[in-house]
Amino acid sequence: MLIEKLNGAIAKAFTGIANTADILILINEYPLELAGAGGRLQSETPDVLAAIGAAAE
């Protein structure tokens, strides 16, 4: 579902500018222990943990 939505948004944005039939989307996932923002590990950020928990339900 994520790839489908990303592909559609990219195709819409680049229609007439680029070949939208050949969109390649690469996803590189990292565990929260290896991702940081705002000086904190994401595994220690309550809002991030709550959002991931809600998405998993």
Straight-line N-to-C gap? 16 Å
Into which percentage range does the β-strand content fall?
A: 5-15%
Order of helices and strands: HEEH
Low-confidence stretches: none
Q: What characterizes the major β-sheet?
A: 2 strands, antiparallel
- The whole-number mean of residue pLDDT values reads 91
Tertiary shape: elongated
Keyword list:
single chain, mainly alpha, 2 helices, elongated
Structure notes:
The chain is mainly α and 57 residues long. It contains two helices and two strands. A two-stranded antiparallel sheet has the order 1-2. The longest helix is centred in the first third of the chain and has 13 residues, at 2-14. The protein is elongated and about 45 Å long. It starts with a helix and ends with a helix.
Short description:
The chain has 57 residues and is mainly alpha-helical. It has helices at 2-14, 46-56; strands at residues 36-37, 40-41.
Topology:
Layout: H1 2-14, E1 36-37, E2 40-41, H2 46-56
Antiparallel strand pairs: 1-2
